[in-house]
Structures are given as C-alpha cells and as structure tokens.
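To: structure desk
From: M.T.
Subject: fold request, one chain
Message: Could you run this one when you get a chance? Sequence is below, nothing fancy, just the single chain.
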Amino acid sequence: MTPKNKYHQTQAQIRSIRLASNPLRIPVEQVVSEYTRRRWTIKDARDMTEFACHPCAILSDGSYSVFAKFSEAANGLEQFEIELAGLRLLSECSGVLTPTPIGIISVPSGSILVLEAVQEVDRAPRHWRQIGQTLARIHKTKWDRFGLETHGFFGPLYQDNTPMSDWPTFYVERRLWPGLRLAIDSGNMPPDVIRQVEMLISRIPELCGSEIVPSLLHGDAQQNNFISTEMGSVVIDPAVYYGNPEMDLAFIDYFQTVPNDVFDGYQDELPIDPGFWERRDLWRVWGYLGCVTVDGSLYLGKLIEAVQKYI
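Reply: Done. Structure tokens follow.
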C-alpha cells in the first residue's frame, strides 16, 4: 500500500524511520534501483510498524513506492523466503492478487523483505465484500491432507505443517499443543489457565463439527492482511497450509470487528456452515496462544474467555 496523500517530511523525520535511515536505507535503495533499472533514492517514508510484528515502512522516491520490512531474527531470511512462497502458492492456486516481490536482502543485522507497494483505497461496503470473496476463492483450492509439505511461520512463531489425515488431530497436534508449550515457555501463562487449555484440548474431537475436505488457508487472515485497492483485495502476510476454512473466517475479526459485508461476500462464493458461529472462538484459541507468547498478558483475557466457552 502507499500513502493516500502526499505529505511534507523533513529529512530528519525520514531518517527517524529505521528502514529509511542508515545502514538499512543503502541496501534497500540498491535493490530497488536494480529492479527499476534507474537510480532510486528514498524521499518519502511512512512508518507501518504499528501494523506488523516487524519494523516496516512504505518508502518512495516520489514516483515509485515499495514496502519494506526488517527482521533481526537469526532465521529472518528463512521466514521471508517462506512468506514469498506462501504468496506464490495463493496466487498460483487461487488466482488472488498478491504484491510483486522485489527481493530479500541479507544485511549484517538481519534481513529485509522488499515488495512493490500497492495503492490502498478507503474501504466502502464493496471493498469489505471483496475481502470475503477473496478468502472464499482461496478456500476453493483443496488437498487430500491437512497441513503442507513445508513448515511455516505464524508471525515470528514456528508453524508445524506436517500433514495429517483428519482435522481434529491436526488442530490438536500441530496447533494447540505446540501453541500451549510456546505460551508456557514464554512465562506468560498462569497455571490455572494452562489447566483450562488442557481441558479444552481433551474435548476437541467432540467440538470440531462434521468432517471436512482440507482447504487452502491464508493462515493469518486478519483484516489488515487484505489491502483494499481499486483492482480488488490484495493478500499479504500469509501463513499458508491446508485446513478447516473456519480458521480463516474466525481470524478475520479476532483483532477488530468487520461489517457483515465480509461474510456476505464469502457466501457469494461458498456457504458458511451454521455451526461456525458457535465454533468461532474455538479456532481463535490458536491465535490467542500465539499472541500471549509474543505480547504477554495483553491477550490473556481473550484467551481465557474463548477457552471457557468450551470447557
């Protein structure tokens, strides 16, 4: 996405944004110059870090804009390579719009992912509906197992995608148990909450609903991972695998509410099982465990509220 309006910035303001300042600025300018085959230097910068778990920004020379994000993680390069592979899978299998990749840069302090920016628009009802339609198109791609042949990352957290033949077992063994262990290791889980999650896990087979065919998932389908443009919804930041489509539907509004247009748009393409609304918080438990691991007690209340609905 790009800033909706041009705005004046001093060089000091631009340099205050990490990706627009040395030493990260230089390799970004080099890789974009090579991609565009002309000299490209950062003149405008918009910090986007509040919307992501990495330092990131929209950077522009005044006529061409890119999105860049930086990881200091030891496996940051691997994470970014898997992110691009997930975008390719979504685009090739489902035909959804994804940003054009420019490159991944290794720097002494970490790794930088650079994508071509897209022009964001303010959302009207039709744009919300397009998000639902886009998500349904992803879910139309099927496989014979739950998981993926490669592992992934849910934000900064490792995501085990080792395939399994049934959904309840996959959700327990590949999502809830690993998620609970990470949350415990973070030191952010009180003993009583640990016991409640364990009780929930023991009940998963009776809570998951009827058998389903594995669908391709975005994997982190919160609304901010869809950019509304005049051409349609552009998909970003996937954590792809084949699973229960209700996972994505539950994640659309687990940070912020969305209008019903999203679900109406989804149902333009695919039906939503009536039982989903009762199961929605069940699928959010995986996400809340991840949030507790990364962000501490901020999401502990939401985790407890979700778990207690099913024990």
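Reply (cont.): Confidence is low (pLDDT under 50) at residues 1-9. Let me know if you need anything else for the meeting.
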